[in-house]
Amino acid sequence: MNGSRRRTPQEIADTLRERIRTGALRPGARLPTQAVLAGEFGVERGAVRQALRVLQEDGLLSDVSKGSPPRVAEPRDGARDGPQPTMVALAPRLTEAFAAPHVRIDAVCLTAQSLIPALGEPLRLIHEGRLRPDRIDARILLPGRDINLAFPVSVDAGSEEDDAVHQRWLAMRNAQGQVLQYNLQALRGTHDIDVQVTFRALPFTPPVKLYLLNGAEALFAHYMISRREEPTDSGTLQMWDTLGSESLLFSFERRSGQRDAAFVEQSQKWFDALWETITSDLTLS
């Protein structure tokens, strides 16, 4: 963070807020001392104190006024259970999952669009030596390349745009899947972690997305279909599509009671049944 320009208290608060949001700083954990934070951001302690007060007013820190470093506040009632957009909710859940010795990620989705940025934080913590799983197994179910997708599809069905819309989705599916695979498998060489990333093809378009983390949590969202425009070199594609990163993600945890535990168990059985029966080998090309 050090550089020629000093950070403002608001910029410091925003950086610490992001660490809390992604799970790098977890509820109950103490922050570094004001001296350490001042050194990291290249500012005086007064600027750090102002930033900490901002976060306390936002309900993110507690014990700011005491002599010892403040703690990250526990989530307010219902804050964890309330649905949030996938792009916001997925990263901290994955970060928690990567604290386990054996990380298991099962996903059913249209593309890997949301998974790639969400994995950024746990991968960063691994590279910093703050997380050290022994093994990572990722199984991803994506629609097959040759099926008739329910979405994305051209608004004008049967037009010349049909193939262009399908090829656009296929290119995204392949490129994002390859990036996901590379980012995880690179941990074999850099950190000697046993990594397995496997894709299989669904014979249908999933109307929902599902992430299963270590068999302990299920994250579920509905794909919301809307009309979208995509500029191209030859004009504009009009399509019925979904923006999965904005889909509200609902969390179900085994430890949260019988209802949630049953949902996690049944979701895992559903995923395993798809994986072992009607899906097929998928090559990202």
TrEMBL record:
<keyword id="KW-0805">Transcription regulation</keyword>
<keyword id="KW-0804">Transcription</keyword>
<dbReference type="GO" id="GO:0003677">
    <property type="term" value="F:DNA binding"/>
</dbReference>
<dbReference type="InterPro" id="IPR036390">
    <property type="entry name" value="WH_DNA-bd_sf"/>
</dbReference>
<dbReference type="InterPro" id="IPR036388">
    <property type="entry name" value="WH-like_DNA-bd_sf"/>
</dbReference>
<feature type="domain" description="HTH gntR-type">
    <location>
        <begin position="6"/>
        <end position="75"/>
    </location>
</feature>
<keyword id="KW-0238">DNA-binding</keyword>
<dbReference type="GO" id="GO:0003700">
    <property type="term" value="F:DNA-binding transcription factor activity"/>
</dbReference>
<protein>
    <submittedName>
        <fullName>GntR family transcriptional regulator</fullName>
    </submittedName>
</protein>
<feature type="region of interest" description="Disordered">
    <location>
        <begin position="62"/>
        <end position="84"/>
    </location>
</feature>
<dbReference type="InterPro" id="IPR000524">
    <property type="entry name" value="Tscrpt_reg_HTH_GntR"/>
</dbReference>
<dbReference type="Pfam" id="PF00392">
    <property type="entry name" value="GntR"/>
</dbReference>
